[in-house]
Amino acid sequence: MLAAGESRRWGADNKLLAPVDGKPMVRHTAEAILESGVRPVLVVTGHEAADIQSALAGLKLSFHHAPDFADGMSASLKAGVAAVPDDCSGALICLGDMPFVRPGTLDRLADAHAGQAALFPTYRGKRGNPVLLARSLFADIMRLSGDEGARTLLRAIPDQVGELAVDDPGILRDVDQPDALRDTFGP
Fold first, then answer.
1. Angle between helical axes of 103-112 and 25-35 (0-180°, round to 10)
2. Residues forming beta bridges with residue 46, ordered by sequence position
3. DSSP E strand stretches across 46-146
4. pLDDT interval class at 185 (50, 70, 90)
5. What is d(CA 115, CA 161) in angstroms, rounded to the nearest whole number?
6. Which has more pLDDT, 44 or 5?
7. Per-residue pLDDT averaged across 128-154, rounded?
8. 126-127 and 62-65: which strand pairing?
9. Is the pLDDT score of 11 beyond 90?
């Protein structure tokens, strides 16, 4: 789970620590991941790392700090894939600001991965997150820079990118601004 960003569009506070139904948004996301069968659960920290770790206290996950988190998405992504154990065939890249993704969606993505370089969930024809990235992409990811994620790499290999239709509108709902939380929390 990527939880290193500076939440620039949110305002002065760290959006991942924003309370949602009595607990920090990032904790909702982590708990959903832990309800799935996806393991291990790795959390990439950066901005306000100690506060993120505190918000996730007591959960069975491990933390990996991206010291260059201010460089953008690539720094978080690189720190995450570098921490993936050798016996994992890929990584499900979950975003800390997507607390509405259902645990079953994560399981479906993991179960459906069949050798593609990447697998995106779709809802009503629209691609969302999280994306499953195969280990075959890790070396290329380690060469990314700035605020670019894996999408740049994936555009070059469209025939190796799969899609999985899911009945989960949460895959399209990232929380970039406070008004995105105005709707009732939950699936």
1. 50
2. 48
3. 62-65, 90-93, 118-123, 126-127, 131-134
4. very low
5. 10
6. 44
7. 93
8. unpaired
9. no
The distance from CA 37 to its chain's CA centroid, rounded to whole angstroms, is 16
- Evaluate if residue 141 carries a pLDDT over 80: yes
**Coil, strand, or helix at residue 171?**
helix
Residue 83, both tokens: 């921490």
From residue 89, how far is each of 3, 120, 134, 137 by CA, in Å? 22, 16, 6, 11
Question: Of the CATH numbers 1.10.510.10, 3.90.550.10, 3.40.50.720, 3.40.50.300, which one belongs to the domain with range 2-178?
Answer: 3.90.550.10
Residues 148 and 71: beta-carbon distance below 8 Å? no
Dihedral angle computed from the Cα positions of residues 122, 124, 128 and 132, in that order, rounded to the nearest 10 degrees: -10
In angstroms, the Cα distances linking 37 to 31, 63, 81, 103 are: 12, 19, 19, 8
**Model confidence pTM above 0.85:** yes
Strands (E), the chain: 2-3, 19-20, 23-24, 42-45, 62-65, 90-93, 118-123, 126-127, 131-134, 161-165
Task: Note the pLDDT tens digit of each residue in 81-99.
Answer: 999 999 999 999 999 999 9
- Token pair, residue 82, equals 């570098």
